[in-house]
Amino acid sequence: MSRDTIQRYFDAFNAKNTDEMIECLSDDVAHHVNEGQVRIGKDKFRAFCDHMTRSYDETLTDMVIFVNDDGTRASAEFIVNGTYLQTDEGLPEARNQTYRLPAGSFFSLENGAITRVVTYYNLADWTRQVSA
């Protein structure tokens, strides 16, 4: 079930279906953002997704999902293929630049729902790509 939950989460991401992503989460999900603060709850997760959708068009490829034996922890490694659509505060100006970036996510799960999402990528690499 845990692998299915993680796969469903990423399939929803690639389909740009925030509602489906949120259905995979617990009500008190802890969302640890790369270079940002921890956001608690589905409402803050949705606000983050809405912001990201305005600023970035991303598709994840080369996905590999790992799940521990008891299904309480999972991780995924993937490539982010994106276009920078709208300037994000404190970052370079957006001009529809494309980027390709390795990334990873870590998850905690309870009763088939994601209780923690942590995503990491190399911000310096992303900045270099969109500034070129």
Q: Strands, helices and their partners?
A:
Layout: H1 2-14, H2 18-23, E1 25-32, E2 38-40, H3 42-55, E3 56-67, E4 73-84, E5 97-110, E6 113-121, H4 123-131
Parallel strand pairs: 1-6
Antiparallel strand pairs: 1-2, 3-4, 4-5, 5-6
Distance between the termini: 42 Å
Summed over residues and divided by their number, the pLDDT gives a mean of 96
Physical arrangement of strands within the biggest beta sheet: 2-1-6-5-4-3
Number of helices: 4
Helix content: 25-40%
Largest sheet: 6 strands, mixed
Given helix and strand content, the structural type is alpha+beta
The best one-word shape is: globular
Element pattern in H and E: HHEEHEEEEH
Based on CA atoms alone, the radius of gyration comes out at 15 Å
Total count of strands: 6
Strand content: 35-45%
The residue ranges in which pLDDT falls below 50 over 5 or more consecutive positions are none
What's this, in brief?
The chain has 132 residues and is α+β, with helices and mostly antiparallel strands. It has helices spanning 2-14, 18-23, 42-55, 123-131, and strands spanning 25-32, 38-40, 56-67, 73-84, 97-110, 113-121.
Q: Explain this structure to me?
A:
- This protein has helices spanning 2-14, 18-23, 42-55, 123-131; strands at residues 25-32, 38-40, 56-67, 73-84, 97-110, 113-121.
- Strands 2-1-6-5-4-3 form a six-stranded mixed beta sheet.
- The radius of gyration is 15 Å and the shape is globular.
- The protein is built from four helices and six strands, in the order ααββαββββα.
- Strand 3 and strand 4 form a beta hairpin.
- The protein has 132 residues and is an alpha+beta fold.
